[in-house]
Write a structure and sequence with these properties.
Number of domains: 2
Mean pLDDT: 91
Structural class: alpha/beta
Distance between the termini: 36 Å
Order of helices and strands: HHHEHEHHEHEHEEHEHEH
Number of helices: 11
CATH topology of the largest domain: TIM Barrel
CATH superfamily of the largest domain: Glycoside hydrolase/deacetylase
CATH architecture of the largest domain: Alpha-Beta Barrel
Largest sheet: 6 strands, parallel
Amino acid sequence: MKNKMSSASPAQITGIVLLSAAAGVFFVNSLFAIIIALFYILLCVAAAFFPQSNFYLPGISRGSTGQNLVALTFDDGPAEPTTKQILDLLDKYSVKATFFVSGVNALKHHEIITEIIARGHTIGNHSFHHNPFLMLGSYNYLYQEVSRAQEVLKDMSVNALAFRPPVGIISPKLPSVLNKLGLFCVTFSCRAYDAGNRCVNNLSLRIIKKVKADDIILLHDANPRGKEDSAVLISEIEKILRGLIVKDLKVVPLSALIGREIN
């Protein structure tokens, strides 16, 4: 029993404690028992939107180096021309990043996947279709979405070890899926709430004012809505790179920040 409890997730342990408590007081005060059960349900729902809590699984949301280091990550691509423009900018500043790609976009832009790797960056699994409601689906649907993206990347000679859930939402089904596929979960600790590059104005200000040591920064390499926004996006990302230098924060590969290989 002790071994089972030690390997249980906080969600499971909390469930055992609260639901046992609810059952224990039911015949004394049924209303209080219902309140306890409802509290656990609300806790489970809220935890899905806060993966940093590690309520469902031991995900990684930031580094633990204790040094002035951060990592850059880009979600939702690859996309033409945005991803290539970002790659050129990263080269200019000698910075390495991790790109969490969707399977469907990887299939569309095989050559960009090859270029990302060739330039010394790493690639993570971001599901196949990037469905924002992925975690609400069945276990089989979730497994197919993650495994299909994994197969696409393997066909491109990419051995992705890290998975990032679409829009940062998780579910109780995710740990089993990742364990079966040999993946671990990586989220983030600093974001600009850019809605997937739909809100790129002042992107750099939103990042730089709150970024701190050991942060995993979330950005996107999806194409913005218009050409004007595309120019703004690249300019904002460059401002982020300059702002990190001013704050004496060095960008390192994600693997170096978290102490685990990504590819």
